[in-house]
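Quick one - first record:
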Amino acid sequence: MSAARGFVPDPPVRVKEYKIGCIGAGMIMAECHLAAYRQAGFPVVAIASRTQQRAEAVAARWEIPAVHATPSALIADANVDIIDIAFPPDQQPALIREALAQPHIKAILAQKPLALTLDEAKALRDEAASAGKILSVNQNMRYDQSMRVLKQILDRGELGTVVVGTIEMRAIPHWQDFLEDYDRLTLANMSVHHLDVLRFLFGDPDAITTVARPDPRTKFAHTDGITVSTLTFPNGVLALSMEDVWTGPREEDFDSDIYIKWRVEGTQGVAQGTIGWPNGSPSTLSYASKRATDGKWVTPAWDTMWFPHAFIGVMEQLQYALKSGEVPALSVADNVRTVALVEAGYRSIAEARTVRLSEISVD
């Protein structure tokens, strides 16, 4: 049905010639990046991680020919064109800078959050520009199939003028151990998906109000466990992003009803759906439009999923930017604006007020 209505839930693979070196061998690399790259035919030529043993195990699973003892050794490998980083954000900037200094490295794919502070993110943006290298940030929710089809519906004007949009998450993330050492939790590491995709759908907001409380399940000290952010946009759109990482006492064998739901309402139609990540299923979308469906609900379908298939699009847009000379779809300059939105959310929590994005400099 997606094809029948002209929707493209997964972008085509236009370029797959650049050799990738992967830094990191944890779940996101082993289960998502490398699974996607195998399916797309992207050449992965080397891997390194914090422990060589872990890197060797992942290399054997995915038939990666070279294992380096350290990330620095991988970055120095002249056979690598693109560095793909899946490392803690406090360690990521140093790796990016090492890669920018190597003449043979053509581009870098970084994880989000790009850095722990907005100032660091801006510095990395500027250093990449000075080096003449592409730095892209893995905001993979923009390649979730429901989000891409929703964006196509919005761009066609099939919902009319957007009035309100919501993302409601009731799911339990696996917090990596390194997060215990940071003073920021959900907003920087989970809400960043939703805040970024709201920018993708509606443009840059002009204000954000975020409230938060600790999550009873998360044992280490934190402030932003459960978060709710409302955003206003210059075009009048009101949006809400809620991250309920508690969802109830699941340790006591409660029946699961975890989910991520979204809904967008316009003057000419409504779209709603789910993100399949918490349950390991494809995301969904249904919409009804006075302009396009005579007010009847239509449900485009696809077999691919956010994890791992979105990671094909993320790496492909970087390879295409290298080949074509065009700005990558996930450019670091654009991502700095997402980091600024997260920063504004934290300021809103700290000062218990609405924060205008004009207060946060991205220059």
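second record:
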Amino acid sequence: MKTLNFLLVVIAVSSLLSCEKDDPGKYADYLVARPLTISLEEFKNGVDVIVPQPINESGKIYAYENYIFINDKYKGVHVIDNSDPGSPTKVAFIKIAGNVDISVKNDFLYADSLTDLIVIDISDINNMQIVNRLHDVLRDNVIWPMEADIFEYEDWGNPDNVLIGWEVVTERRLVEEVQQRFDDVLMANAAENSVGQGGSLARFKIVADYLYAVDNHSINIFEISDLANPVDMEDVYAGFNIETIFNQENHLFLGSRSGMYIYDISSPAQPSFVSEFQHGTACDPVVVDGDFAYVTLRGGNGCGATESGLFVIDIADISNPALLKSYPMEEPYGLGVKDDKLFVCDGSFGLKVYDKSNVPDLTPLEHFDGITTFDVIPMQDHLLMIGDEVLYQYTYTATSLELISSMALD
């Protein structure tokens, strides 16, 4: 009987605590970011080619010839043979500590490993070789998860460890305690007075004999005419919170949390600023097609207070970009264009397809809901899309997209 009474008390207390945590006025769900670290030794020896692995957290997607490369955030790159899009197969996993981006030219793959640039010969996909490593040539290359509401630092600070990224999870917290933390941070900041073909989320871009890699503040430039031996050139300061890079002809288009910056690369080793289009603070990739740029803004959380949306920008006068029209979105990420179609990944709200033949008026064509979408690459013959640890491939028809295959990456 005593045991029964004790169990009843435990259940009652648990119920009270559960009810209290369900109180929407007292508790709320927050995105909490914790640092991911590895030892210095592990970082120095953190590049290797191994057998295929389950994916932990899918990142950016890159297509080269008959292969697809999918970033596993901060861990490396999954290599997939896509000779048959209806039945893609895993080939290998390139283990690269702290990796988030790659780019490929003539069978040489360039990848970031935090501040280092790794060069890998992939001419024999079954025997890929690491041919070079440039140390400390990338700066400010650890991307903070701006969607997070709270950052926990208790596991960070050991000088023998290296920060490679962040893990973001949803946790229920006391609203009062979180608000107090925000207030403390604001006061502290005031006191310190701190001032191939990739998708639209790419931070690496190869143009002719140059690799451009953007970090939070700068364009890092590498001359790669000797593919195995990149030459680190002078960086170009480009502002704050740079997130993505896109190229059209002699111009680079940089997406930042405050706007789109345009640089002229007629002199490829010395990009020169042309103009900018400013918008409210939000996470921001950009793609360009002819005289128009398309920008998705993902507001909320750390990305900013701006409402989410899709902006259509006139760049016919490259020195004076102008907003033509905006469309509401829910939580947009990457986007892509092909012919008269615009593809927008709207996060957990799926893939949205528009007819853009009458820019700036976009006509909704299709909405693939019930899936989470992150980024797309419109290929010549079919569409690649990554989202929620799944690789989707669609074929184009005269009126719609038809699913070719979906490959679970876990």
